[in-house]
């Protein structure tokens, strides 16, 4: 080992068997597109096919349900 390397032999040996593709011990956050799909579909359907003059007001409860679901996964909308 040269003078520029700071790892000791035991540290190198401990990391030698580590799988670089193995998932880390910290769980990863799911992608926003993959969660709350039912709530999102209901919200979108209400907003797109509303016959009301004010779709935002008519669909407010579905929008709220979607926001609450996303917040449960750590997303802030």
UniProtKB/TrEMBL annotation:
<feature type="region of interest" description="Disordered">
    <location>
        <begin position="1"/>
        <end position="31"/>
    </location>
</feature>
<feature type="binding site">
    <location>
        <position position="33"/>
    </location>
    <ligand>
        <name>Cu cation</name>
    </ligand>
</feature>
<feature type="binding site">
    <location>
        <position position="34"/>
    </location>
    <ligand>
        <name>Cu cation</name>
    </ligand>
</feature>
<keyword id="KW-0143">Chaperone</keyword>
<feature type="compositionally biased region" description="Low complexity">
    <location>
        <begin position="9"/>
        <end position="31"/>
    </location>
</feature>
<dbReference type="GO" id="GO:0016531">
    <property type="term" value="F:copper chaperone activity"/>
</dbReference>
<dbReference type="InterPro" id="IPR007745">
    <property type="entry name" value="Cyt_c_oxidase_Cu-chaperone"/>
</dbReference>
<dbReference type="GO" id="GO:0005507">
    <property type="term" value="F:copper ion binding"/>
</dbReference>
<keyword id="KW-0186">Copper</keyword>
<dbReference type="Pfam" id="PF05051">
    <property type="entry name" value="COX17"/>
</dbReference>
<keyword id="KW-0496">Mitochondrion</keyword>
<dbReference type="GO" id="GO:0005758">
    <property type="term" value="C:mitochondrial intermembrane space"/>
</dbReference>
<dbReference type="InterPro" id="IPR009069">
    <property type="entry name" value="Cys_alpha_HP_mot_SF"/>
</dbReference>
<protein>
    <submittedName>
        <fullName>Uncharacterized protein</fullName>
    </submittedName>
</protein>
<comment type="similarity">
    <text>Belongs to the COX17 family.</text>
</comment>
<keyword id="KW-1015">Disulfide bond</keyword>
<dbReference type="GO" id="GO:0033617">
    <property type="term" value="P:mitochondrial respiratory chain complex IV assembly"/>
</dbReference>
<keyword id="KW-0479">Metal-binding</keyword>
């Amino acid at each position: 080992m040269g003078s520029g390397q700071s790892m000791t032999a035991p540290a190198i040996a401990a990391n030698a068997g580590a799988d670089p593709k193995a998932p880390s011990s910290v769980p990863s956050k799911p992608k926003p597109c993959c969660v709350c799909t039912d709530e999102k579909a209901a919200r979108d359907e209400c907003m797109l096919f509303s016959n009301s003059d004010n779709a935002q007001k008519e669909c407010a409860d579905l929008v709220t349900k979607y926001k609450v679901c996303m917040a449960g996964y750590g997303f802030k909308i």
